[in-house]
Design a protein that fits this description.
Elements: E1 16-19, H1 24-39, E2 54-57, H2 62-66, E3 85-86, E4 103-105, E5 111-113, E6 117-118, E7 125-130, E8 136-141, H3 145-158, H4 164-172, E9 180-186, H5 196-211
Parallel strand pairs: 1-2, 3-6
Antiparallel strand pairs: 4-5, 7-8, 7-9
């Protein structure tokens, strides 16, 4: 038996591909009427057929318009990507209190990796305040992190607020140098949006559980109702 090989001729014909709509008959009509203007052009005649070839794809339906996919093609990142972790900006007075690190550990020694780049200027951040006595406090802020940390620091120095963090410093720490902090997570919303404040408080609650700062830390007054919203 002799096997014959059939080679398909390469098709270089240019086609018009567009969305299907109510005016598709008019498009066909006008293209056919004036197609000779293109076909009689020697420079493009070899790339087109005697008659226009048109293809129609499915037009967007109601679902496509109301629930568009927000999956995006991967784009090349910056030439010098920012490292993941918390790093002080080296420009503000809050930097002296910050500890640069890419990982943190809870009181049981479990390690957590910081998945975002965070510095003193970052907003929408869940943060950690800790001391040598292994007591820790976790909070969150929509404002720049340095502003929220400065408020905590002033309350500790002046003993102005009635909060577990201030009371702990008043009772056990006379040296404000034991006040240190770092950012844990930066919250962003998907292209579909959402409630940023609610998402921030929910992630704060999750971090409090991970670091066990209710039983062994200073988050005993934390409100848990955000998980029910």
């Amino acid at each position: 038996m002799i096997n014959s090989t059939h080679r398909r001729k390469e098709d270089t014909t240019i086609r018009l591909i567009t969305d299907f709509h109510n005016g598709h008959h008019s498009i066909r009509k006008y293209l056919r009427k004036h197609w000779y203007l293109l076909y009689n052009n020697p420079s493009i005649q070899q790339y087109i057929s005697h008659h226009p070839q048109i293809g129609f794809r499915r037009a967007p339906n109601l679902r496509d318009k109301l629930c568009p996919s927000f999956l995006q093609l991967e784009s090349p990142g910056p030439l010098f990507p920012k490292p993941k972790g918390f790093y002080t900006c080296t420009k503000c007075s809050t930097c002296k209190l910050g500890l640069n690190r890419s990982t943190t550990t809870n009181i049981n020694g479990k390690e957590f990796i910081i998945q975002d780049f965070i510095n003193c200027e970052s907003t929408n951040v869940v943060y950690l305040i800790f001391r040598p006595c292994q007591k820790a406090y976790i909070g969150s802020t929509i404002r720049p992190l340095k502003i929220r940390i400065q408020k905590h620091y002033r309350n500790v120095l002046k003993l102005e607020a009635k909060a577990p963090l201030v009371e702990h410093f008043q009772e056990f720490h006379s040296n404000e140098r034991t006040f240190t902090f770092c950012g844990l997570q930066r919250i962003t919303l998907s292209p579909r949006g959402g409630n940023l404040h609610l998402r921030l408080r929910q992630e704060e609650s999750r971090m409090i559980i991970n670091y066990d700062t209710v039983n062994t830390g200073l988050n005993k007054d934390h409100e848990w109702h955000y998980w029910l919203l």
